Amino acid sequence: MDRFQSHLHGVTLNRPPNPPKNRSSSFRPFRHTSTATALNLVSALCDVARIVQNELEVVTRQLQAEQKKRGDRPRIGEREAGLADRSQDLHGKKVKLGEVLAEFFDGWVSAGWRG
């Protein structure tokens, strides 16, 4: 993903150094295509992040219900342990997706995205 991301940033944001006036337009289709690709990728990542967030909320509610059912008993049931593992897994995915989205955004903003 890092190589793909750096390639999209490079094509989208960088213009060739001192291009001749009649040659700068020849790079425009590549910049536009890579921008559209990057925006579609970010949109898809946002959709995945929304799905992960919704699933995390459901698992968290289920885990809280299991903990409430257990009460003061010290033994954790199989279902509660499974939900706790699933919750940790989803939280890790949410954090990773947030990092990837932040990298894309920071890369465009810091490089002066021209759209």
From TrEMBL:
UniProt-annotated stretches for the region Disordered: 1-30, 64-87
Domain STAG span(s) in chain numbering: 24-76
UniProt cross-references to InterPro entries, sorted A to Z: Cohesin_Scc3/SA, STAG
GO cellular component: a single term: cohesin complex
Any Pfam family hit: STAG
Residue ranges with Basic and acidic residues bias: 66-87
GO terms, biological process: sister chromatid cohesion
Gene Ontology molecular function terms on file: chromatin binding
Name of the protein this chain belongs to: STAG domain-containing protein
Species for this entry: Jimgerdemannia flammicorona
